């Protein structure tokens, strides 16, 4: 089994990752799941507002379909929109099974807007992955995991009084990383 | 195409927050899928020549899978049922 460090993983484009998954690379599969797990979760839970139980079933079902049908993906750079489409269809199937109403009535009207936001968010996350681990960690804990200064201070063993300034400095680094990497294919795949 | 055109820190913060992590166990289960699929395939091959195992799988699939160290997630159950279905 191969191993991908965080840095190596972040450097892989979506298309390279798909290629490595097709060749049976277990580490690449782990990374693919990690890279898109938040995306699938957000579509199911924020976009379609599924219960935790239904969202979990959709989540597992989507990755099972990705695993089974990866060979059929014609354009490896299109993995993100393909996963988005698979997730939308799986959510609709889930709702349809429970409600017995036509498919066109089941997609929330604002789902396109959410997908657009999530696509931007994935680009930011890709840039986040290029930052040093302490910055990645503190930004993720504060913004994505909604942890308090006190929790972050304890978890990362940093003085509570410095958490806010570290977050601010790391956001500036992320801003620079976004500006430096807008031409990076890793950020514009799909 | 450049998707994120402006990079105000407030916007970056909002976009980080837009992707909270799913529960850790969900990710782990999806990552283990290839291993479980391989184990399932091996188990089903064994069941072709082991009538008792096949009977256990048909009688109580979830328990039989757990006994064999395979997590019976819905996709695994679906794949197993499809392969156990008589032709």
Q: Please, could you describe this protein's structure?
A:
The complex is a heterodimer of chains A (190) and B (87). Chain A is built from ten helices and no strands. With 190 residues, chain A is an all-alpha fold. Chain A has two domains: 1-126, Orthogonal Bundle (Rna Polymerase Sigma Factor, Chain: A); 130-190, Arc Repressor Mutant, subunit A (Orthogonal Bundle), CATH 1.10.10.10. In chain A, helix 3 packs antiparallel against helix 4 (52-69) and helix 4 packs across helix 5 (79-99). The longest helix of chain A has 22 residues, at 26-47. Chain A starts with 5 loop residues before the first helix and ends with a helix. The model of chain A has no long low-confidence stretch (mean pLDDT 89). By secondary structure, chain B is mainly α. Chain B contains six helices and no strands. Chain B has helices at residues 9-17, 24-31, 33-49, 51-59, 61-67, 74-84.
Overall outline of chain B: rod-shaped
Q: Please tell me the overall pLDDT of chain B.
A: 87
Which CATH C-level class of the largest domain in chain A is it? Answer: Mainly Alpha
Total domain modules of chain A: 2
| DSSP strand tally of chain B | 0
- What is the CATH architecture annotation of the largest domain in chain A? Orthogonal Bundle
Number of H/I helices of chain B: 6
Q: Class by helix and strand content of chain A?
A: mainly alpha
Q: Mean pLDDT of chain A, rounded to whole units?
A: 89
Query: How many structural domains does the protein architecture of chain B include?
Result: 1
Global shape of chain A: globular
- Give the structural class of chain B: mainly alpha
Distance between the termini of chain A: 28 Å
Distance between the termini of chain B: 50 Å
Q: What proportion of the residues of chain A form beta strands (DSSP E)?
A: under 5%
Strand content of chain B: under 5%
The SSE order of chain B reads: HHHHHH
